[in-house]
What we know:
By secondary structure, this protein is mostly helical. The chain has four helices and no strands.
Amino acid sequence: xxxxxxxxxxxxxxxxxxxxxxxxxxxxxxxxxxxxxxxxxxxxxxxxxxxxxxxxxxxxxxxxxxx
Length: 67
């Protein structure tokens, strides 16, 4: 799952560090459908807020209700 997450992020030109992937694997729902949706949401969020992917940003996004 971690490798698939990294590949999806790379396809979107998102720079996910091993620490960020590890954090997601520990704190996000672990089914691939949800993780894939999260990568899409993360891509959108970083572009909208013009921020790089960091652990605080991941925490912020995980605590934001998703539609």
